[in-house]
């Protein structure tokens, strides 16, 4: 590994003027991460750590555009392993044309070319493994390899989210040898991506080298990529400060403050977090079956102050997360539909028959880190101000995620939702009466109809209008789960890191463009 | 010389003005009861006191060098080389983690520079000198692999390592059995005559003094009260304390029918010393003057001093000591000699009881052998009678006592009490039976629960057996206290507020609470000072007279057993070798072991030249006893038959049974 | 017999006398403790102070410990907030004051429950010995063989963050330690002469355990309890620090430290004050334990 | 002695068995399990859930699972991680050296600090130095080691701008980096342990200094140094060693927190990570290893008794 530890002078380079905008090849990029994956198998694990690593090694058929001119929240589907694709008139047949790409030069694949069969096997695997990823392909009726370079998907019915789903981070394409069991997918990864996994030391670090046969000419720029596991936030920051790490994940505003004092050249990237906190209420329990009560809760929360003081900035969220860009309601509308109005909340509570409020518990898990727990405390305080006395119940993550939440065994809860990348997921999985993540007892026939309809509309603008309408309906008539906020993640980078243009989807797909100017 | 200790509660003056001198080749003994400052004096000489203690004034002159003013480095050079020490307890005085050879050599190394081989040779030679068999091999043993007597020999070897001019021996034989004590005394005497070493002997045993010493220093409460040559002292003690001390010790020739003379009260604590003469509160001759003024040391003859106003040549006080009594009141009580008359009822009958403790070993705690602690013991006790049980340490005396009361279950044999077989009784009946037999324990300190008041301690048997509760209990405990000579006012005190003798009285009161028929006294007086021991012995005799109690009196002290017992059973290695009445035993013991035992007892008479049978070796281990007669390995009269045939306990003459082939028919 | 002049009032009077005796003995002990154990005395006073603070927390703390002052996030110590505020604008001083309740609660509850259970188990094990002892001991060994914090981590992480779960975890840890002491003491006491004496007058197991066993093993138990108190407080803090102990928004000191670790540089008061409070309280219990050990050691006291 | 060790080993196995059973049962008794955790949001069918259960071997009864696990464990197979499918033995062998090294380093450090200070304290007992050392050592016992770790880390980073190099490297790979990474947590752990060693050494040496055989040694004219180091210390070692054996439990427990603060991939952090993901086999194995380490240390302690004290050696 590279020896750059302890050299503090390096963090303050004297000339930081962009000498050349022409990308330079070479160098080792070291990133500190709080944890690493339990398993590298990208289809069995939804953890962000698994998918970040998968993103270096694997490709999907299609992916999202990244680059200096692309917003973090722009969901523009672009070619990846598929060079191009055709959609039939009726919107039920998708034909993907594969590009000439080669697998990494490792046993047992040994750098052979990618063929349609790899794609088919991977898709079958995704469908057959239990787990959330299978649902992404639930509308697929059949798959077929026309030749080595052409794959055809036939859908049961027109399905608007399909292409977006194909760009989803679960859709990493594996070599068929892996599916046949010749590769231990939990500890090894052989793909077509920009980097080749050299070594993964569990909980220590993962080392990647440049893939010389990557299908994009000249990329990637980095020779080596090192992912170091540093669980402690303070240690990560210290590592950054001393130049042992080129990038670390998001840090709090206070931390950023002290960091930029000692390392003034630090570049700070601010992006929208890909999910949101939401308050969810159990609609089968009194008094939460009352719309007024739910509205009162929503109005009691001072979203903007909360996200500003706890996360150092962010915005009021909506039923579809703002990181989905055009699919989310515009900010003004989100704010307008979800005002901070404690007096109004009190009035609504009185109307619902609770002029003096009531006692309840607010469930939260510490499994997502302590910021969410702080959010819970903030919200509890807000609720207290309108008379709702919510005692915080901190639940252990496994219990939370496998017992309490799915079984809807709580009064109110606050949590993050999985990083969905499709409005359909945000809306349908959560709010349809048969949604797989409807762990709130929502059952609204009118909403169900709208949700089913929206996914059939192929025209994007038309569909967006419908998605907006649904969101408005939800904010007016369902108010569950109650969106709170989406925050800005501020992550520092060393000044010599160039072309770091991340995207809000999983997988660090921008790493192929990153280069070091030093 | 004065020695003071800095303690938490203030300064304690343990030794106050002790002076004496020792000449070459001489043995000077310092005697006194426990806590009188003997050990402190001895340690002060070499400045070996703990850091809290220091010699505050006075001089210790050794060959005209003042040891008290020497630098640490200088006195270190004298220690071990010119003056060596032997301590009381050979069990704890050797470092357990080094071989004995190492420890002997260490001494030599400190003072002499020799080669490795020479060191070793010297050590072996020393071990031979002190009579440790198989010295070449034994030199590599660790202390725990040796018996008590052997360890004491090693201690002596260490002391002799550099041929010192003076050996300070602090109770060198107290922790040993009588037969071993006799061996060690012989050894010391022999070495002294060979090497011409002077010995400063610390002891509380007047018998040992008489045997060993040339001159004697008697101390009381940190002060010398009398100093004299040994012959003179025993002939005519000048100080009342010395006199009383001598009279309170039961001797073999003491008349069993008379009370022992006692000294009233207890040895005072150093923290609350009496004014004037420190002995005055206990002295029968105390006058006003004794109370207020401390007597000086009066010269009363050649090399003889005494610290008593009675001896003041200026005062006209008649200084004859009434040789009769110190405590006059009960002088005319006589005890009946318990004849074994037919009309006595048989109370306790023990037949062939055995107790084998399993020795477990190995992974599965397999039993690999047994400690034959008691190996077929039979005896009986009649109503109102005292049976003494003597024997050396570990021979199984206590185990017999426990077996009899059912505190532990026997391996085999029968115990009948008042005609009833104990093992056949159910729990209820057993409980009833138990209250008729009570135990008095050796150690008055540990046998009383420190967190209970006297009321609760003595009241416990009353409660357990439903005799009395509440107010009745209170009343009854008060009575019991008075019976044993304590005050009713003590009822709410805790044990630590009493002296040793008083505690033993509490123990006796507890035993008497259930109005028992039989008291088992296991070393009931062994831990007490002689003056107090006499009080307790008298108490026991008084109680017997008053209440018709029977005693099983267990002790290793033959003098005491002789005094108190009607009959005596001698035990050796878990077996009884001889039983007879006490007079007979001391006059015409039959068994060679009994003879040796009796002869080994030091006689407090310097003029006597006892014919001593010194036994070889030490008591074998009860887990691996010799075949045949267990005593044959040490018996001076062992015959071939003794090695393989076990003699039976047979009646030799009326009331005199013995188990020895010498008296067998064959 | 002389009990003629026994009047009926005597039992009452006597009980009274006896109480007095114990009371005077206790008073004497206290005096002796004060005289000989200055450090112990200071420790007791400090612990007493903390207990007082815990009881009077609402009167001492200037703010509600969970009250968020949204105008003063991470405020440095100032006149209003003498120890500053934390990342939710809560007053650190008030939280430390209330936090003493949690430390003491966890400490007391754990120590008392484990003493009671430990005594029961230890007594049975020590008095009866044999196979019962063998089985109990192996189970205790098994619990003790798992390093304490690992076991606590395991249990607390499984049960989820809650004060009662912390107590359960810590009790499981402490039981074998007390049981072992009690067993050892019981086996020692069982062999003492005074127990033999008591057995020889016919006392049964219960009586021996209650009258002889318990009172005579109080000294080591008290010493151990005092030291265990300190250990327990640290363990609670460690668990909370790892996020599996006392749940927010409770102002546990360990939890405060855990949240504060990210503000080590920007807001050091968040780390220093709770850490200090924790260390001082533990120090007081440890010093008290030491002092008690000295005080109760028969070798050292006359 | 040999027999004694064999007996201890057998006890050890029994103890480990009880331990495993305890962990096994407790873990499965509390809410939350791997299968629901993995499939909670997927809308997976009953069959899929059952299939996964069967695949992971969780469909059998708990005693049967325990039996299987023990049979496997005896043959050195500790099962597979329920999440990664990696053999548990591999996971453990990756993590164990870190914790082991940390523990050994801190024990050595603690001994090096603790024993000399303890002896000084005993020899100078009741002097100012003694009081000072005693109070300091109680202080050392009272500071939570995670707090110490935090403060050390921050102070070094702020004052010297130095932090332990990132990315754990084993001693064999790079001893210098490894040392830099391990020394701070080892110090934090050692401080608590050395504090108790100081106390124990002090009281043991004091007690031995009052024993009779020390008087014998003094009466031989031995130098004070010989009295203290050759005799008093050697005789005190049994209690000090015993203490170390017992304290190893605390030490190993402390590794969890310090591993997390110092980003060390040890066994402690492994348990922490895997308990909440309900990765039963890994947790079981990790706790088992901790228990085994503790028992092993105490076995070593027992063997050392024999070395220190011949009375034990020969019995
Ligand atoms: N280290 C000490 N600190 C305080 N007092 C002490 C110390 N050592 C001895 N003493 C006291 O000094 C007095 C004399 O003790 P010493 O050991 O000389 O008695 P002794 O005559 O040898 O008694 P024994 O026959 O029991 O051995 C005793 O009262 C004892 O309590
Ligand atoms: N509980 C026991 N387990 C094993 N061996 C025992 C037990 N009690 C006593 N012994 C052994 O039995 C033998 C006799 O012991 P006992 O105490 O009866 O001797 P004793 O004659 O009273 O000795 P002492 O004069 O020293 O009191 C000794 O060797 C002792 O070691
Ligand atoms: Mg003495
Ligand atoms: Mg005995």
Automatic annotation (TrEMBL), chain B:
TM stretches of this protein: none
Entry superkingdom: Bacteria
Record-level GO BP terms: peptide transport; transmembrane transport
CDD domains, per the entry: ABC_NikE_OppD_transporters (cd03257)
Pfam family, one: ABC_tran
SUPFAM superfamilies, per database record: P-loop containing nucleoside triphosphate hydrolases (SSF52540)
Gene3D superfamilies linked: P-loop containing nucleotide triphosphate hydrolases
UniProt keyword annotations, A-Z: ATP-binding, Nucleotide-binding, Transport
Entry annotated with the keyword Transport: yes
Keyword ATP-binding (UniProt): yes
GO molecular function, one term: ATP hydrolysis activity
Positions of the ABC transporter domain: 1-246, 348-598
Family affiliation: Belongs to the ABC transporter superfamily.
Protein's recorded name: ABC transporter ATP-binding protein
Organism: Oceanobacillus bengalensis
From TrEMBL, chain C:
Tagged with keyword Transmembrane helix: yes
BP term (GO), one: transmembrane transport
Pfam (any one): BPD_transp_1
Record-annotated ABC transmembrane type-1 domain positions: 100-289
One CC-aspect GO term: plasma membrane
Thylakoid in keyword set: no
Similarity section: Belongs to the binding-protein-dependent transport system permease family.
Protein name in UniProt: ABC transporter permease
Source organism: Oceanobacillus bengalensis
TrEMBL record, chain D:
Compartment(s): Cell membrane
UniProt signal peptide: none
PROSITE patterns to which the protein is assigned, alphabetical: ABC_TM1
Keywords (A to Z) from UniProt: Cell membrane, Ion transport, Membrane, Nickel, Nickel transport, Transmembrane, Transmembrane helix, Transport
Domain ABC transmembrane type-1 as annotated: residue spans: 96-301
SUPFAM superfamilies given in the database record: MetI-like (SSF161098)
Gene3D superfamilies: MetI-like
InterPro entries for this protein: BPD_transp_1_N, MetI-like, MetI-like_sf, Opp2B
4Fe-4S keyword on record: no
PANTHER family attached to this UniProt entry: DIPEPTIDE TRANSPORT SYSTEM PERMEASE PROTEIN DPPB-RELATED
Transmembrane stretches, start-end: 9-30, 102-123, 144-163, 183-201, 237-262, 282-308
NCBIfam families: Opp2B
Subunit field text: The complex is composed of two ATP-binding proteins (NikD and NikE), two transmembrane proteins (NikB and NikC) and a solute-binding protein (NikA).
Topology versus the membrane: Multi-pass membrane protein
Family the UniProt entry places it in: Belongs to the binding-protein-dependent transport system permease family. OppBC subfamily.
Main location: membrane
A Pfam family that the UniProt record links to this protein: BPD_transp_1
GO cellular component: plasma membrane
GO MF, one example: nickel cation transmembrane transporter activity
Name of the protein: Nickel import system permease protein NikB
């Amino acid at each position: 590994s590279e020896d750059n530890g302890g050299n503090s002078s390096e963090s303050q380079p004297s000339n930081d003027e962009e000498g050349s905008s022409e990308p330079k090849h070479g160098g080792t990029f070291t990133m500190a991460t709080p944890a690493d994956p339990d398993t590298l198998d990208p289809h069995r694990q939804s953890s962000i750590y698994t998918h970040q690593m998968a993103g270096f090694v694997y490709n999907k058929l299609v992916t999202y555009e990244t680059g200096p001119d692309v917003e973090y929240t722009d969901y523009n589907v672009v070619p990846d392993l598929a060079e191009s694709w055709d959609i039939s008139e009726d919107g039920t047949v998708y034909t993907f044309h594969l590009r000439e790409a080669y697998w990494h030069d490792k046993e047992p694949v040994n750098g052979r070319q990618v063929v349609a069969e790899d794609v088919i096997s991977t898709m079958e695997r995704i469908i057959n493994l239990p787990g959330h990823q299978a649902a992404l392909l639930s509308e697929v009726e059949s798959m077929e390899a026309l030749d080595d370079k052409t794959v055809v998907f036939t859908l049961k019915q027109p399905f608007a989210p399909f292409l977006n789903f194909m760009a989803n981070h679960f859709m990493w394409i594996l070599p068929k040898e892996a599916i046949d069991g010749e590769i231990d997918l939990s500890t090894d990864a052989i793909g077509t991506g920009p980097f080749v996994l050299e070594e993964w030391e569990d909980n220590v670090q993962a080392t990647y080298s440049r893939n010389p046969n990557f299908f994009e000419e000249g990329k990637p720029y980095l020779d080596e990529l090192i992912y170091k596991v540093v669980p402690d936030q303070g240690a990560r920051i210290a590592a950054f400060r001393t130049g042992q790490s080129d990038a670390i994940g998001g840090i709090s505003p206070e931390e950023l403050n002290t960091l930029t004092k000692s390392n003034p050249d630090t570049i700070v990237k601010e992006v929208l977090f890909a999910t949101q906190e939401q308050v969810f209420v159990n609609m089968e329990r009194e008094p939460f079956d009352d719309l007024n009560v739910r509205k009162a809760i929503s109005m009691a929360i001072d979203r903007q102050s909360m996200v500003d003081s706890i996360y150092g900035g962010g915005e009021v969220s909506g039923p579809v997360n703002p990181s989905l860009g055009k699919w989310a309601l515009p900010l003004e509308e989100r704010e307008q539909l979800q005002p901070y109005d404690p007096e109004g909340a009190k009035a609504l509570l009185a109307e619902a028959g609770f002029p003096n409020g009531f006692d309840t518990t607010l469930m939260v898990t510490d499994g997502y880190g302590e910021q969410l727990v702080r959010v819970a405390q903030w919200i509890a305080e807000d609720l207290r101000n309108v008379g709702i006395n919510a005692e915080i119940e901190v639940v252990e993550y496994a219990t939370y995620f496998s017992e309490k939440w799915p079984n809807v065994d709580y009064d109110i809860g606050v949590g993050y939702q999985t990083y969905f990348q499709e409005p359909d997921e945000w809306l349908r999985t959560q709010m349809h009466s048969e949604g797989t993540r409807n762990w709130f007892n929502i059952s609204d026939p009118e909403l169900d109809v709208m949700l089913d309809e929206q996914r059939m509309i192929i025209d994007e603008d038309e569909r967006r209008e419908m998605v907006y309408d649904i969101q408005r309906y939800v904010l007016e008539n369902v108010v569950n789960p109650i969106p709170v906020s989406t925050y800005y993640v501020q992550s520092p980078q060393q000044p010599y890191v160039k072309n770091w243009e991340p995207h809000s989807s999983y997988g660090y797909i921008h790493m192929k463009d990153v280069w070091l100017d030093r | 010389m004065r020695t003071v200790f800095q303690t938490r509660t203030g300064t304690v003056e343990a030794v106050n003005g002790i002076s004496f001198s020792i000449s070459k080749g001489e043995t000077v003994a310092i005697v006194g009861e426990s806590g009188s400052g003997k050990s402190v004096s001895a340690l002060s000489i070499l400045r070996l006191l703990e850091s809290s203690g220091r010699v505050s004034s006075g001089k210790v002159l050794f060959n005209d060098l003042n040891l008290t003013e020497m630098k640490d480095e200088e006195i270190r050079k004298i220690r071990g080389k010119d003056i060596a020490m032997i301590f009381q307890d050979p069990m704890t005085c050797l470092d357990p983690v080094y071989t004995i050879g190492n420890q002997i050599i260490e001494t030599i190394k400190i003072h002499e520079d020799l080669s490795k081989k020479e060191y070793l040779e010297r050590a072996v030679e020393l071990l031979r000198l002190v009579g440790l068999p198989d010295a070449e091999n034994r030199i590599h043993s660790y202390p725990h692999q040796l018996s008590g007597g052997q360890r004491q020999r090693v201690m002596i070897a260490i002391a002799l390592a550099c041929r010192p001019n003076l050996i300070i021996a602090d109770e060198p034989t107290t922790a040993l059995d009588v037969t071993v004590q006799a061996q060690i005394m012989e050894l010391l005497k022999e070495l002294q005559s060979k090497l011409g070493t002077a010995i400063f002997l610390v002891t509380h045993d007047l018998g040992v003094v008489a045997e060993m010493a040339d001159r004697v220093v008697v101390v009381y409460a940190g002060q010398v009260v009398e100093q004299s040559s040994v012959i003179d002292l025993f002939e005519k003690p000048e100080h009342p304390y010395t006199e009383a001390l001598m009279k309170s010790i039961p001797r073999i020739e003491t008349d069993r029918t008379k009370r022992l003379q006692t000294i009233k009260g207890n040895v005072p604590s150093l923290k609350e010393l009496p004014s004037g003469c420190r002995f005055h509160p206990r002295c029968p001759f105390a006058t006003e003057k004794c109370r207020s003024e401390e007597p000086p040391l009066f010269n009363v003859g050649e090399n003889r001093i005494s610290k008593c106003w009675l001896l003041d040549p200026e005062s006209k006080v008649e200084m004859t000591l009434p040789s009769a009594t110190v405590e006059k009141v009960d002088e005319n009580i006589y005890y009946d000699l318990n004849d074994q008359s037919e009309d006595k009822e048989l109370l306790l009958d023990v037949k062939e009881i055995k107790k084998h403790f399993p020795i477990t070993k190995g992974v599965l705690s397999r039993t690999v052998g047994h400690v034959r602690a008691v190996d077929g013991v039979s005896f009986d006790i009649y109503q109102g009678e005292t049976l003494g049980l003597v024997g050396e340490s570990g021979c199984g005396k206590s185990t017999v006592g426990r077996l009899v009361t059912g505190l532990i279950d026997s391996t085999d044999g029968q115990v009948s009490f008042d005609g009833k077989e104990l093992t056949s009784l159910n729990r209820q009946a057993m409980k009833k039976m138990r209250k008729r037999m009570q135990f008095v324990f050796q150690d008055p300190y540990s046998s009383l629960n420190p967190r209970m008041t006297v009321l609760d301690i003595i009241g416990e048997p009353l409660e357990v057996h439903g005799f009395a509760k509440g107010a009745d209990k209170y009343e009854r405990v008060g009575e019991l206290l008075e019976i044993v000579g304590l005050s009713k006012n003590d009822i709410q005190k805790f044990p630590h507020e009493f002296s040793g003798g008083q505690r033993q009285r509490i123990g006796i009161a507890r035993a008497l609470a259930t109005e028992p028929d039989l008291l088992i006294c296991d070393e009931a007086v062994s831990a007490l000072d002689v003056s107090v021991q006499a009080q307790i012995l008298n108490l026991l005799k008084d109680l017997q007279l008053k209440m018709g109690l029977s005693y099983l009196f267990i002790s290793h002290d033959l003098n005491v057993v002789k005094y108190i017992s009607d009959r005596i059973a001698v035990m050796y290695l878990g077996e009884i070798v001889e039983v007879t009445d006490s007079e007979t035993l001391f006059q015409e013991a039959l068994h060679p072991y009994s003879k040796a035992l009796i002869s080994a007892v030091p006689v407090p008479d310097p003029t006597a030249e006892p014919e001593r049978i010194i036994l070889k070796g030490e008591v074998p281990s009860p887990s691996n006893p010799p075949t045949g007669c267990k005593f044959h390995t040490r018996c001076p009269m062992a015959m071939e038959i003794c090695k393989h045939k076990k003699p039976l306990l047979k009646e030799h003459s009326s009331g005199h049974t013995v188990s020895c082939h010498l008296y067998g028919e064959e | 017999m002389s009990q003629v002049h026994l009047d009926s009032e005597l039992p009452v009077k006597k009980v009274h006398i006896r109480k007095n005796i114990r009371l005077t003995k206790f008073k004497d002990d206290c005096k002796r403790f004060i005289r000989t154990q200055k450090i112990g005395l200071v420790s007791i006073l400090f612990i007493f102070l903390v207990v007082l603070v815990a009881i009077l927390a609402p009167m001492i703390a200037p703010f509600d410990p969970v009250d968020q002052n949204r105008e003063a996030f991470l405020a440095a110590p100032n006149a209003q907030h003498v120890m500053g505020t934390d990342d939710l604008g809560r007053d650190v001083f008030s939280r430390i004051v209330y936090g003493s309740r949690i430390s003491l609660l966890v400490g007391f509850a754990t120590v008392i429950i484990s003493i009671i259970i430990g005594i029961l188990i230890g007594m049975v094990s020590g008095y009866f010995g044999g196979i019962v002892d063998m089985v109990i001991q192996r189970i205790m060994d098994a619990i003790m063989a798992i390093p304490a914090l690992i076991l606590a981590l395991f249990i607390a992480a499984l049960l989820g963050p809650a004060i009662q779960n912390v107590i359960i975890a810590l009790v499981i840890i402490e039981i074998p330690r007390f049981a072992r002491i009690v067993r050892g003491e019981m086996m020692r006491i069982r062999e003492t002469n005074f127990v033999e004496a008591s057995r020889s007058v016919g006392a049964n197991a219960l009586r021996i355990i209650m009258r002889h066993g318990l009172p005579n093993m109080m000294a080591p138990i008290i010493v151990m309890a005092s030291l265990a108190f300190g250990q327990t407080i640290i363990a609670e803090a460690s668990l909370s620090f790892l996020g599996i102990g006392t749940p927010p928004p409770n102002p546990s000191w360990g939890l405060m430290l855990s949240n504060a670790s990210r503000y080590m540089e920007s807001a050091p008061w968040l780390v220093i004050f709770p850490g200090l409070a924790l260390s001082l309280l533990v120090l007081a219990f440890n010093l008290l334990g030491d002092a008690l050990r000295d005080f109760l050691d028969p070798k050292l006291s006359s | 002695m040999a027999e004694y060790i064999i007996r201890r080993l057998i006890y050890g196995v029994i103890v480990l068995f009880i331990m495993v059973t305890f962990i096994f049962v407790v873990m499965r008794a509390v809410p939350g399990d791997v299968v629901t955790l993995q499939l909670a949001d997927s809308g997976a069918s009953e069959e899929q859930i059952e299939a996964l259960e069967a695949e992971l071997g969780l469909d059998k009864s708990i005693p049967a699972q325990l039996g299987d696990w023990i049979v496997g464990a005896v043959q050195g197979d500790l099962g597979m991680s329920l999440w990664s499918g990696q053999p548990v033995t591999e996971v453990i062998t990756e993590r164990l050296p870190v914790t082991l090294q940390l523990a050994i380093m801190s024990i050595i450090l603690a001994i090096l600090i603790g024993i000399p200070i303890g002896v000084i304290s005993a020899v100078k007992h009741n002097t100012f130095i003694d009081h000072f050392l005693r109070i300091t050592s109680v202080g050392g016992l009272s500071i939570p080691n995670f707090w110490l770790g935090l403060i050390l880390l921050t102070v070094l980073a702020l004052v010297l701008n130095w932090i332990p190099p990132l990315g754990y490297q084993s001693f064999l790979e790079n001893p210098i980096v490894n040392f830099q990474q391990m020394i701070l947590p080892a110090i934090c752990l050692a401080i608590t342990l050395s504090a108790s060693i100081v106390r124990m050494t002090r009281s043991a040496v004091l007690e031995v200094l009052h024993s009779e055989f020390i008087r014998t040694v003094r009466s031989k004219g031995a130098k004070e140094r010989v009295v203290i180091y050759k005799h008093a210390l050697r005789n005190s070692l049994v209690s000090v060693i015993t203490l170390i054996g017992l304290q190893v439990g605390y030490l190993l427990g402390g590794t969890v927190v310090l591993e997390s603060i110092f980003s060390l991939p040890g066994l402690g952090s492994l348990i922490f990570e895997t308990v909440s993901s309900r990765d039963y086999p890994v947790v079981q194995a990790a706790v088992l290893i901790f228990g085994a380490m503790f028992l092993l240390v105490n076995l070593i302690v027992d063997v050392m008794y024999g070395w220190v004290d011949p009375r034990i050696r020969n019995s």
